[in-house]
Structure formats: C-alpha cells, structure tokens
Amino acid sequence: MIKQGLELKQQQKLSPLQIQTIKLIELPIQELEQRIRTELEENPVLDDTPDPEKEEEARDVSLDEITDEGDIPSYRTRVSNWGKDPRPEYNTFSVHQSFTQSLMDQLGYRDLSPEEYAIASFIIGSLDADGYLRRDLESLVDDMAFRAGISTDVDEVLRMLAVVQELEPSGVGARDLRECLLLQLRSGKQTRDTVNAERILEEYFPEFSNKHFQKIMTRLNLSEDDLKRAMARIVKLNPAPGGETDYTYTDQAQQIIPDFVLEEENGVLSFSMPRFSVPELRVNKKYADLLIEARGSSERAQKEAATFVRQKLDSAKWFVEALKQRQNTLSRTMSAILDYQHDYFVSGDEADLKPMVLKDIAEKTGFDISTISRVVNSKYIETHFGIFPLKYFFSEGMENKEGEEVSTRELKKALQECVDAEDKKKPLTDEQLVEEMGRRGYKVARRTIAKYRGQLGIPLARWRKEL
Fold it and tell me: What range does the domain containing 128 cover?
C-alpha cells in the first residue's frame, strides 16, 4: 500500500557569501594569504600585477559600480594586498606543528566517507592538551548535533574513536590512563614482557596503581623477574601523548604568523593586524570589453562569454566582501577578549587571567558561539610577554575563599607549585593538597585536586615518593 503525505521541514540555507565568510574566518593568516593567491590564480578577472604599459588605457572603478544594465566602463584589476610589513620585526615566528594539526594530517590519509571524516575531526578537536578524550560519548553526540550539525550516535562515535586511537602518537584518544597505556602496548611488538604488561593493566590496574605487587605476581603466576620486566615496559610508556609530539624532524616545523599584535601603553590596550588588509579589487579591461561586445548581441558564443565574466565578477565581489566580514569578525572578537581579560594583558600574570568561555565572548560580540570558536581556532596574538594561541585565554572557573571566581589555569598553577615545594620523602596526599591549596586561598574539593593532578600529569603521592 502506497501512502502519500506532506511533510514540512525548515532548513536554513547559507548564501555563497556566508559560506565564503565562514571558510575564511577559520583560516590563520598564512593560510589566508595562500587562499588569496589561489583566488587570484583561478579568477581571471583579478590581477595583482598591473601592466604599466596599459595603465593609461584603463579607468579604475570599484566592483560595486558594476551592474547588469548600462554601459560598462573600461577598467583594470589591481590587488593591493601584500607590501612591506609596517612592522617587519613581526614577520614570522617558527614553532612546531600543533598536536591537533598533526592528527588532522594523518586523518586525511584514511579512507573515510565525508560523514566519518567529520565525526573523527570533531573527536580530534575535543581532545585535551594531553591527548585524552575526557568527555562521555553521549554529550559528544549532542555537541556534534548542536555545534556542527552532525547527526550521529554513540556506536558510530565509538567506531570513529577507534580510528583516532590508531593515529600517532600512540595512546592518543584514550579516555583514561589505563586505556592510554594499553593502546601504546598494543601498538608495539608483542613480546612476552609486553603481554605480561597488558595483562597487568587489563586485569589488575587498581593493584598496579596501589603497588600491590605480591598480589599481582600470585594471581598472574609471575616471577619477580617477570614482574620487573613488565613494569619496566610500562614505565617507558607516555602517560600524556598529547604533550610530547615528536619534533625530531625539521620538516614538522611551520611558520606561525601572529594574526594580532598587542600594543599596551599606560594600561591602554590596542591591537593591529599588520599582515592583513582587504584587497582593493578592480576589473580587468579586457573582460569589461567582453561584456560590452556581448550587450545586445545575438551570438551564442558572446553570450556565453558574458555569462562567464559575470560569474567571475560575482565571485570576486563575494570574495572581497567575505574578506571584509572576516576582518570585522576577528577585530570585534579580539576587542572583546582584550576587554574581558584587560588586567591579564596588561600584567602578563596568570593570576590575572579571568575564567572565560566561548559563551562570554559570544555575548559581548553578538556572534554565535560557533563563530567565536572558528575565530579562536589556529589564531595567535603577540604580546609583550610572549606569543599565544587565542585558545590559551579560555578556561573555566571556580571560586576562591573570598567568593571570587578564579580561572582553572590559575588553580592548576598553584597546585603545581604545591607539588614542586613538597618534601619528596613525604609527598602530599590529595587530602593534604586540599589543605595546602586552602592555605593559599583556593577552595577546592579533593576530587577536583585529583582531576587537575591527572591533567597536569602529576602521579599519586606514593608514586612521587623518593628515597
């Protein structure tokens, strides 16, 4: 039996200009410059090397003057995009390839459908600085739907997580320390010591963590030498694969150009974007002549040529307008961040870094959270105290004893200082760290200490003990 019915669906379609703008916003400055070069190569209407001999033949006009009706004036194209940097000392800064970019490059070589690639990419973007996925899969599924428009389920995410876990460095994408270590063991050569190490972590991880070695030897029927060799194998593993990308090879280095340069004078903050300006685009005379010749013409070839030129003109308009919107979006976002974190940018002291999430800046600018996320990703600012990715300034917060909100970054720094200052013969337990943090003015729970300790790669007190 065939049933017919009407179904009403509301879909939001983005215009070519909106799509173009979104794509440009995501690009860091060096990739944007390459994107502009590509546009110049692919769009014959545009030209960044005007011919001096023909300069007198052309009359420069704006693209905005072009209409479908009326006479088409003679004009040329010229792009004024690259010149001498007004501050040449800010040309380039050599840094290592980012951990995320390294994973994305590897993902590009996998045979995945567009949907699978999108899910795996989102998972990579959700990893923390240590390379762990510290979020439950259900919330990740919801986040994909709301933030990226990706419709999926837990089973599919789990399947794509397995793909991510096959990338280098080994151990990436793990959801806890045990899984991280096991991923590394399983990716290596399967020797007797490796197999024993896997059995210890799989079956007796709590006993391993608490150093109940006699119980492990008894239950797994291992000799003391077997246990020592297995332990030696485990100790060599990396508990934070995201924090130690291999930079042995120089071809992993890339040039990072700060998108913003901070300027501070007597507490007044401002910034510049010295490497970027919106190109001044004009139309090449010969293509204008094509439109003139085609006007009123009945010849099919002339009409097709005119249609081609019109498409290229529209493409040029969209590109220039998208560049303008990109600059406006980045500028407003950076202004909001500077205003929100004013004290920090003046002092450079992490203690002045306020808790700040994407929603805070979205509310100040009026942009969507997804737009702020695109701006923040892969963008850098140079300050008088160093070069930082914009993501560095975002962190959640907690209250101190006075009820004031402090950033988690400040809390982690204080926790690290407590551990660094402890007596290594009698290292502080998590309960003692709670007390020590309290003496420093930070009100934190023991589970919070355990969480931050794990994120900082600080082992339990018994593992920090030295003879």
Answer: 98-170
